[in-house]
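As a warm-up, study this chain.
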Amino acid sequence: MGLLTRKVVLASGSPYRAQILRDAGVEFAVIVSDVDEDLQPKIEPTQYVRALATRKAQAVAQKVGAGKLVIAADTICAIDGEIINKPLDEADAQRMIAHSCAAGLQRVITGVCVVDSSSRQSWTFADTSLVEMAPASAEKIAEYVASGEPMGKCGALCIESGRSFVKTWRGSYANIMGLPIERLLPLLFKLDV
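Now compare it with the structure written out below.
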């Protein structure tokens, strides 16, 4: 028996989000939303991730039966208001990491949406962590990109494998990984009725 009595569905294929939920003791099923993640026009970063998380959660809530809590999240990096998403290819990943290291400070913002599949009511929030980047040579960046680790990661950086690019961070480490469990878990407990 998990922590919650209601069934939980994670609307994400992210292994990091799944691991964070498992480590918190939450039992869940995974159904990937497959929604178009391109919001146009680009909006303020916090609004962007909240809107995308809501789009993902609502899409999956329509596919599951009643009585479930559907969780979706979207994580981006932002430098001076510019949204840094996932890299398109290796060259894009190298450009992103070089830009982040040169900028020095970036925000990692995760939008989370929980939808009750019975009522379709939703709850959203966003969490922000600050990551201070370290200077890095083009060779070091190219070597990291060649490992494949940055592909599919916001800002082209996986904090677990890319720690040498990070001086320090403030805020939730789980948020940087893609799911701010410290804020999500109390909401799930509140909705577990």
